[in-house]
Amino acid sequence: MVRRAGSTDHEQVVFCHDRASGLRAVIAIHDTRLGPGLGGTRFFPYATIEDAVSDVLRLSRAMSYKNALAGLAHGGGKAVIVGDPATEKTPELLEAYGRFVESLGGRYVTACDVGTYVADMDVVARTTRWATGRSPENGGAGDSSLLTAYGVFEGMRAAAAHVWGEPTLAGRRVGIVGVGKVGRRLARHLVEDGASVVVTDVSARAIEALRSDLPEIAAVPDVPSMLGEPLDIYAPCALGGALDAVTVERLSARIVCGGANNQLVDEGPGGTADRLRERGITYCPDYLVNAGGVIQVSDELHGFDLERARKATSAIFDHTTEVLRTADEHGITPAEAADRVAEGRMAAGLPHLWLP
To answer: Which of 110, 208, 231, 333 has its CA 20 to 30 A from that of 76?
Structure first.
């Protein structure tokens, strides 16, 4: 069943129910002016279907902005599967979901998100041509953290050029919060560029693994300790909500640039982004710099080529430069500037060449 999204600006919302497998899902396509909606599938035990709809509308809209900023020929889409992935995920359910994706004829391209993994996309791909984030054995790109981390690094280099005049992190002290897949790879890029790196993570094992590989990296026990460190750059790479009023007031860094999603706790007027600007801290919007992963999975549609995808990801340097320059020219925050740039690209549009 297809329903319009009421008062939202979404193009299409599809409610998916397969009785045999128990699938309950919602697919939201926000905007296809740049190309087919691209965004991951979230598998989560929402309390109500209304909660699921609210989340998928928010997430799909955010993907329109991320994809536009990344320079992709893709609009924004997202899907949510309602249920506990630990107990309700089955091959039959994922195959049924793939059939719903296929029924949209290429208007929506899916990938991994919270609760779904590369192995799941391999199953979804059995019943649709429009599943990315698959394993290399099945023609996919595999772990998308590889280019996510590289894109954050390129954004950080652009911010360094904007603030200090040189596109290098050499001699700068960078604090990374969260050294999972993205944070760990980012740390290596920074060390290789000559930066001094200090990290923290809720997992002592993750820190130990990183320092066994890069012993020159320092570690602190928690985020409050990190905020007490003298830093040039602060890189949130763990959970969302990393930048609240307390954190912003304690930051010594001149730049915030990290891989975590939804970093700003208060996105409204006078909120976190405005306070960062008031304090003279250059903020690189997360959906601008962490787009390497979506660039990586989008490349699968053309037969994945790592070097081609890496070259596309390196353009995050130029995109970040454009956003920071726009912010300065108009006296606005980088978050607002990123939205303006994305909206301009969506308004310009591209020929719709993706349909089979």
So the answer is: 333
Q: Which one of the listed residues 66, 78, 89, 311 is annotated catalytic?
A: 78
Query: Is 82 among the annotated ligand-binding positions?
Result: no
Helix (H, G, I), strand (E, B) or coil at 136: helix
Question: What's phi and psi for 234, nearest 5 deg?
Answer: -115, 125
Q: Rounded mean pLDDT of 255-283?
A: 93
For residue 32, give its domain range: 2-64+75-138
Shared domain check, 81 and 191: no
DSSP string, 292-327: HHHHHHHHGGG---HHHHHHHHHTHHHHHHHHHHHH
Q: Can you tell me the distance from the alpha carbon of 243 to that of 265, in angstroms, rounded to the nearest whole number?
A: 6
Residues 328-334: contacts with CB under 8 Å, at least 24 apart:
333/273, 333/274, 333/276, 333/277, 333/283, 334/273, 334/277, 334/282, 334/283, 334/284, 334/285, 334/288
Q: pLDDT tens digits, residue range 284-320?
A: 999 999 999 999 999 999 999 999 999 999 999 999 9
Of 127, 50, 136, 46, give the one whose Cα is nearest residue 91: 127
* 78: annotated active-site residue: yes
Residues 177 and 300: beta-carbon distance below 8 Å? no
Pairing of strands 12-18, 23-31: antiparallel
Check whether 311 is labelled as a binding-site residue: no
Tell me the CB-side half-sphere exposure of residue 80, using CA atoms within 13 A. 23
Q: What is the CATH number of the domain that holds 331?
A: 3.40.50.720
| Nearest in space to 231 (alpha carbons), one of 171, 147, 294 | 171
- Annotation-wise, does 220 bind a ligand? no
- Ligand-binding site membership of 181 (annotated): yes
Q: How far apart are CA 58 and CA 137, in angstroms?
A: 33
Any domain includes 54: yes
Please give the pLDDT value at position 240. 83
Q: What is the mean pLDDT of residues 229-250?
A: 93
Same domain? For 113 and 236 the reply is no
